[in-house]
Write a structure and sequence with these properties.
The chain has 330 residues and is of the alpha/beta class. It has two domains: 216 residues, D-Maltodextrin-Binding Protein, domain 2; 101 residues, Periplasmic binding protein-like II (D-Maltodextrin-Binding Protein, domain 2, 3-Layer(aba) Sandwich). The chain is 42% helix and 18% strand. The strands form three sheets. It has a five-stranded mixed sheet. The chain is globular, with a radius of gyration of 19 Å.
Amino acid sequence: MKLTTSAGSALVAGLLTVTAACGGSGSGSSEGSGSPEGGAAGATTLTMAETPGAPFGFVSYGVQRGHFEDEGIDLQVTPNPGGGTATVPALLQGDFDVMGLDLVSALTTIGAGLPLRMVSAGSATSDEAEGDFSAVLVKADSPIQGPADFDGVRMGVNALLNVNELYIQRTLEDQSKPASAISPIELPFPDILAAITRGDVDAGIVIEPFATIGQSQGLRVVDRPWHAIKPGLQIGTMVMTDQQVAEDPAVAERFARAVQATADDVRDDPASFRAALPALIELDPALAEKINLIQWRGASDRESIELTGDLMTEYGLIDAEIDYDEIIIG
């Protein structure tokens, strides 16, 4: 499914309407810039929406380990119930100060002329396919064995026109199949598993821990989508609005340092991160030991971001020139 001209116009119009109505995002939840040494009383309060599952667990782990507090930030993070560009208005309206997005949604919004800045990297996948934190799942008795069998497939996705679209378009291209071979159907991650089991969809793209949960329920992996796009690909980003960054550039820098410290922490001691996940995202401890961990690097991977932008242009998702020097600040 490509982003048609009418769909693209509707998206841009909707986002621009939000921006015009609210005059851009403010920093209403910030209590002042504070200082890294200021402690809880003088900390800057930031509200953040992050993708449910392991991405939310990562940020929560950084809070738990005190990395944000060390930077003078009182971070209030909540799972983002939606996904993709549909969630961006909440950031533009000032409901959140920071938002975790997949790169496609972020670049779609930026390509529409809206003022987002990438302040830190989000999730990235493994260099090895078996370590990818995403999976295309099917029922155990499904005739689908791999992408070559995607013919008239109903594919559950957590959001339309996000990073799922890159995988779908890349797969169609690689397999020389028409657009009708894969029909994406938008569902929350937990619902995708149930929909596959019921037969409401033929396959579904999920991330951890849902990939491992699905396998524990008898579902089968037929592809590792993010690795299929590019080994080690950065998938997510953490964004603020232009106004938020301009009003307090130091807080964006401090936020990025806290994310980097959390990424270093997870890389240096993954066992402690796994041990913490059950409480952070209500995950069974046995599953926490099995899931493929997301790769966290802290700093943005410009090569991944530019590749994503190039593929989006190739597949007709954006037609605007992106100034990467301007949008990537951390």
